[in-house]
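Handover notes (outgoing to incoming on-call)

Open items:
1. O-succinylhomoserine sulfhydrylase: sequence verified, structure written out, both below. Nothing else pending on this one.
2. Nothing else urgent.
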Amino acid sequence: MKSENFETIAIRTQTERSLHKEHSAPIYLTSSYKFDDAEEMRALFANEKEGNVYSRYSNPNTSEFIEKMCLLEGAEDGFATATGMASIFTTFGAFLKSGDHIVSSRSVFGSTHQLLTNVFSKWGVTFDYADLDKPQDWEALIKPNTKMIFVETPSNPGIDIIDLEFLGSLAKKHNQLLVVDNCFATPYLQQPIALGAHISIHSATKYIDGQGRVLGGVILGTKELIAEVIGFARHSGPALSPFNAWILSKSLETLAVRMDRHCENALKVAEYLEKHPKIKLVKYPFLQSHPQYEIAKKQMKQGGGIVTIVVKGGVDGARKFMDGLKMFSISANLADTRSIATHPATSTHSKLTEEERNIVGIEQGSIRLSIGLEHINDILADIEQALNTP
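O-succinylhomoserine sulfhydrylase structure tokens:
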């Protein structure tokens, strides 16, 4: 049965059943595949015939995961990688060469910042940062050698947002490749390709898995663009393992119901903390106080599961709050079923300078709260007692 509904697609899309007629897809733990004869081997390696050649190239489990993600995000094709950062590195590596230039959102994950400043810079790729809250500045940064516009929206951890339709029009005007890190929103809440992006990237480690079990990433786009990605990835080798692909594909079956609960809990936490006397600032896309609230409402289904706050008292206030938490986990991860607190200035974004962190709104008192699936009363109670820790 064909369906356009997210939940049905995520649950019912499945690789072809074997002769054993299994109801749930098995794990294909194999590195290689058998060919019927020499001619089939030749045809497969010559790309004249579709099929599995080697699990670094494709595997039934990764193929099922990719097919689901393509259907959910509205993409033609995709490639699954071992981690989210492998997806970003592979995308940069596939499309950029020495002498090229990137315009990137200033608010990016710490490891993405390291790729731009310390890795691709060694290979002659330059970049300029633009602020998500200053869309009027983006066009002026595009140069004759600019090849890519890269953006996180919502950003990590500042929860800043930019209008993707605006960026899509800008990319089209200047013949740029628009790449969107869609990790925080997931395809359930936001579909960048429908808004003008050419490539959408996910760290599947986060909400796609959603339970803190496995690493993974995925790159989604047109068949033509993904062919470039596959050409690079086949030889650089960032492929997702079959076991992790199996986990991630199964996890997609519950993504919608999980995200509904994450978003419901996160909004209640944001509304609660916005009125709290010990909180200096709360950032959440679906709070009316968010600077890009109208954009968030336009391009996102709900606000997501991440709330960023600034605790009064700077780094001491932040540490006191985090050390006072009893149920929340202190971890660098996010998007788990379990609620998590992270201090970005000393962990995920510690490699940025103090000035760089301040520019993107990461203060010493900033804390990223990944709101989990526990009962909302328990989440709020833990936050309240931690804020009142002597």
